[in-house]
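Hey all, quick one. A colleague (J.T.) asked me to put the guanosine-5'-triphosphate job into the tracker so the inputs and the structure tokens live in one place instead of scattered across chat threads. No bug as far as I know, just bookkeeping. Sequence used:
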Amino acid sequence: MKRGKVLIIGPVGSGKSTLAKRLLGEEHSSAKKTQSLEYANWIIDSPGEYSQNPMYYRTLMATALEAKVLLIIQDATRKDSTLPPNFASGFPLTPIGVITKIDHPNADIETATRLLRTVLPIGDIYFTSSVTLAGIMELKERILSYLS
Ligand SMILES: Nc1nc2c(ncn2[C@@H]2O[C@H](COP(=O)(O)OP(=O)(O)OP(=O)(O)O)[C@@H](O)[C@H]2O)c(=O)[nH]1
Ligand SMILES: [Mg+2]
């Protein structure tokens, strides 16, 4: 059976592509800047600009038609959220929140959770590090349970 896909959104540099690699089992490789939608196996990775400029929201919406799950990324080191309140509910997908870079010395998980909750009022939030791999397996299992 053909598997559904997960669409990953979030601002520039928030760790989307690195997370995508970890989810696909690449434990050490690092990511180059994402210039366009990138399809790899069951993941659709988006450039951070698409989550920072409303001009691209239509593209994200159209791409969502190919996906089943929406992964919304909040960088634990950021003090702002680039997406509008309740953005997740505009997508006909199962949303999952992910707070990345929890290993980082500047990570502020409480603030990140509060920011992510404005975009995703309900739904699971996972806490991950692409450095220590914390939370990656749990997140992967949850995503795959929705995609199969
Ligand atoms: N400390 C730490 N750094 C991370 C983590 N994940 C990603 N990074 C770093 O964050 C930077 C940006 O990572 P990317 O995965 O390219 O970010 P992105 O969201 O794909 O960025 P765009 O493609 O520009 O939208 C890189 O320098 C990564 O090494 C993490 O879990 N912990
Ligand atoms: Mg990227």
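Adding what we noticed when we looked at it: Residues 17 and 120 are 21 Å apart (CA to CA). Residues 6-147 form a domain with the Rossmann fold fold (CATH 3.40.50.300).
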